[in-house]
Amino acid sequence: MTDNVVFTRGVPPPEAFPTDELGECFDAAIREDPSVVLQYGQQPGYAPLRRVLAEEYGVSEDEILVGNGSLQLQDLVSAYLVSSGTSVFTEQPSYDRAIKTFRRRGARAVGIPLEEDGISVERLEATLAREVPAFLYLVPDFQNPAGATLSLEKRRRVLELANEYGFNVIEDVPYRKLRYAGEDLPLLREIDPSRVITMSSFSKLLSPGIRVGFMISPPDLIGAVTRLGEDTYLSPVLPTQAAVAEYLRRGLLEPNVERLKQLYTPRWKAMAEAVRRELPDAQAFVPNGGFFVSVMLPEDANTENLVGRAKERGLVLTPGAAFFADPDDGGPVPGDRFVRLPFCAVTPEQIEEGVRRLASLI
Fold first, then answer.
1. What residue ranges define each of the domains in the chain, with the CATH number in brackets?
2. How do residues 32-43 score in pLDDT, each as one tens digit?
């Protein structure tokens, strides 16, 4: 068998990292502000970084919390908003680690079916008539794992429902700036910020290893989550936050995002073309950006032990069931038919070979 093709984690490849620039920014940040950067403190995050983010998003600094990656912020928000037995709504499928986080905090994670233009508003309305969640968790742009993008009409309707029923909406947008085609849609926050908690990180734009994520929300929630964070990790990782602040101060982020688009666009095109050619009977989600294409295999496809059989053929897949919360209607979960296909860390040649192997197995 030829070399393995790995379609598992949505990670940047090593060539995506702006290594030299980041190294210079780390050096400058530590040398220029050691009494702050190398000390305990700054619980809501490194002040200059919060200042830059507040300016970018048009909010006050007390509406910004910078933490150790957005997943940890999701966990802290869950700890504050969720009590045992509380429901949290997600898209179905949704980010597997978010589902695990919500469940670990005692929530029932209820999945609302995902359509090509985002969450099914009809099913969301029907589920809300039965119960109101602590919050609805969405990845509205180039969703993980499916790749779908929430339409403008649905963004507006979700916010109307949030106001009507009184629940919060987390919009998690780490892939938003990696758009390869089409025009940006407004953040939910830009339409109506009153019940929106916006989260993102620099993992996909700079490096996952630096663990710098942030959230934007009303000051009272920022304060509560900051206190929980201090009780959890005492102090944020200030050297990495300061390096990111320096990177932004130097105006390096936008050129780096353009470089990433040039790197990823051929891989995105290769995955889209391979899926359409090799899996014509599957329902494919092909986004205009992000890290993932996904497929829902036909009902008559041979999905028995697909992950195990794929591994024998040199194709490494993530089990689809992990991306599914409890179904909103109590029905079966089609996890065995769902396949997430990350494309950023594999070459076009590996993509074509990997999708051919997948097609041969079903």
1. 5-16+255-361 (3.90.1150.10), 19-249 (3.40.640.10)
2. 999 999 999 999
